[in-house]
Design brief:
heterotrimer, A alpha/beta, B alpha/beta, C alpha+beta, A: TIM Barrel, 11 helices, 32% helix, B: TIM Barrel, 20% strand, globular
Chain lengths: 310, 325, 182
Amino acid sequence: MTDLDLTVGPNPFFWDAATVRSFYQSLATAPVARVVIGELVCSKRLPFWQDEIAGAVETLLAAGKSVAITSLALVTLKRERKATAALSDIGLPVEVNDLTALHSLPAGQPFWVGPLINVYNEGTLRWLAKRGATRICLPPELPLDSIAVLARLGRELGVAVEVWGHGRLPLAISGRCYHARLHDHAKDSCQFVCGLDPDGRDVETLDGQKFLAVNGVQTLSQSTASMAWQVEALSDAGVTSLRLSPQSGDFAAICTSYADRIAGRITAMELASYLVGQVPGGQLSDGFVKGPFGAHWSAAPASQAMRPGL
Amino acid sequence: MELVCPAGTPAALRAAVEAGAHTVYCGFADETNARNFPGLNFDRAEMAEGIAFAHARRAKVLIAINTFPHAGAEPLWHRAIDDAAKCGADAVILADIGLLAYAAERHPDLRRHLSVQAAAANADVINFYAETFGVRRVVLPRVLTVDEIAAINREIDVETEVFVFGGLCVMAEGRCSLSSYATGKSPNMNGVCSPASHVSYAEEPGGLTARLGGYTIHRTAKDQPAPYPTLCKGCFVSGDQTGHVFEDPASLNATQLIPALARAGVTALKIEGRQRSRAYVAEVVRSFRATVEAFDAGRPMPEGALAKLSEGQAATTGAYAKTWR
Amino acid sequence: MTEKPLPHLPRILALAAKPLPLTPLTVMLTLLTRQLMQRHPGLQRRLGDHAQRRFLLDLTDMPFLLVLEPGGARPRVTAHSRRRLPRHDVRITGLTAAFLGMVHGSLDGDALFFSRDLVVEGDTGAAVALRNAIDDAELDLSAELAIIAKPLAPLLAHLLPATERITGLALHRMDRPEGAAL
């Protein structure tokens, strides 16, 4: 098996233009193979930072990275449909995160599939490959056994299979804006309060258990998923890439730490203890891949066919 | 308008048909359907009998096969589609692309409905499903306003079905893994959300505390209604705010919107609740049948007396009103 | 379904039940349960593995507690004194009227639960399975009792409706759609 490489996913958060600019500049020298850029979560945010996209793409391409542009996660409005249809004209591969994007994608034009598309099984993977998918980031909820089956099929079909490697997990998307709701605003007059929380706004249980984070219309895990302990298991399963999802702080350094882990320069334990100090809230998880539930942190490598019931 | 009613058991199917359901939807007793609850659903013989019972009374039966097959275990889902065709189902309700492709190829004459679990929320994606997989009806996700539904219907050639009563998902359906984050069991993979197997209740000084997978979902004082601990309807803390961050524990009741939904071009009205008893099904179906008939005849619609059946005993029109967002 | 509050068992009846020795009650209820499980194989099938659980039925207006063990070749119900909580996997608490209403298809378990007329503690999954199994079985306890007590059937036919009138409890199936099995 070849070593995993790294993909940086689209930034799910609402950052100001200057932050976005320096973020993508810092990625130019980070050890990542590719970057997905664009607005994933809320179309209302885009006008505030879309002028940064062209420059960022240019910088990243010049640095030798592949770049794709993401679709929105949930397309409902007319202008969102138009923007989605226009993605295929940009000249970058489109990362489909809502199947709406397929409606306007010319047959034969290769595309990527993001983690918000339900690719749970061989039939779906086969269909997407036939339609032109060349790279698929699997939904984060999949256990290792499913990942292994799909990665094997991906190799057969020439589709790169990627897995959520680092970042607060995208657990749900809604028509309702929870950030606005927490501030007693309607969605249409949200005053862009999601911009106040660069990593989402934490949600705890009544007993103070760290649980979720809201990010506009998106709900994230409060824990940061990390495949620190699962690099070998995923590589053995035939996975080609890890997806690192942007967060605040020194993200380029986080990318470097994963590259070091993959290259064997640091151990799983070293990476995990480094990450605890870097991720918002200091909590890690890898339970979707290893079981028994998403929020669980194993601090141990997973093995296939260990999970009952599959 | 067509009334599409839930049945978790053969007894509920008969109760729904007797109470005036035009159409009943149900599922097989395994992970192929999104209400895979203990003691619920149909084996093959029960399904065939249920369909015969309904057809003899000119009601239709739709079979929901609306979870996402596990990698390496697709035959279970494929058999469900094959058996639905064999049983004489009037349609299958599907969400997974792979299954849609399978059904379109193997059973081209079996009518295909797109499940709400596919969360097809605009005309482009609906047209994609219609053109690619021959889908004839789309169950719309519960994130759209009535105006948006009307706009969608102007741009598509397939039927639309919308939820009018029962439990309410606040997230785009089929795109939510909150449940598996806390319990390891999800609607997409296991057909369960916030499963009973992971629920615990404890009488504590602050009141009755409901937990899901160990996470506290809500705590209710004595004599307060005790909603089921569905994750997205829990009471949480964020900063200085404590409350229902995602949704109040209310259930959907769009009875009064039926005229507007009809004007918006909706073909069928769907009632949620395959997990509910035959008593519930009969009462809700009877009430909605009377409402739909009154509407069709141009009579004023009867005030629904369905509040007591609702979760937390409060009702909402959900996303159909724009203010919900 | 009605909006009016669930009837409490009249005190006089509860008192009448009190001196009832628990053993005969156990024998009678076990007899009834075995007949139910035998005549309605769907119960066992829908319960699945949950049939192995011990269900504590706490009918709050009764002077005793019941433990239902539906699994295995010898299903049984045992009556227990309230002085000591018997061993159980799940406890379901509510008025007799709530239990009978669910059994007889006049009340919805979820609605009772939301209004806290029914409280579940312990293995919630088992309680859900039991509720669904019973709901599908379309039971009629009056008819079942009449079968057990065949010689007494004519007497019961008079006695049960009168008892229903006095107590307000649903002692027979309240819904009977055409085509439903008895």
